[in-house]
Fold this protein.
Amino acid sequence: MKLKNKLIKEAQKIMSKEDVAHDLSHALRVLNNAEVISSIEGGDIEIIIPAALFHDIVIYPKNDPRSPLASTESSNIVEKILIKLKYPKEKISLVKQAIIEHSYSKGIKSNMLESQILQDADRLECTGAIAIMRSFSSTGQMKRKFYCADDPFCDRRKPNTSESTLDFVYSRLLTMKFNTCTATKLAKARIKFIRIFLKQLREEISTPKRLNNLSELQ
């Protein structure tokens, strides 16, 4: 699709190169997720593609007070891009709507299928191995702790996303809800991997057991 390639080239010019959790690679993964979901669930691909590629044109750290404005600001920028590319005018407003509604923090339950697919495609980035990488990348940017030393795995308290990245894992990555059956199925294996990661991490940061000999490590 020639138009898709043009959109990707535009995204290459303006996507963040500083925030690796929300860079062009993230946008392309979200696009791939969205296309996979759309191939089963339906939806207008001419709305889904630009919405997926440009949903994070504007991004602020999650602890920045401007963060709630990011999706609206992104939608305003994408409008100018699509007008320049002579995109179908009747679809530009729907692309903007999908971008505004995709934001997890806004908690919007959209009735538009394309918005639901973009939400799911982006939320899949909050599951699995890539979610762990992105979460700890954002932690450095936010200057947040890896984990709470007193209770790393929230065994005796409720997770607090501002407390540590592991709290974020428990409150967000393991509780992610999806709109479509396709995304729900895709997420299952990814969530299973997060639980494996947590099990290994618990073993590594727990009080080490005394070894009698090196053969116990084999």
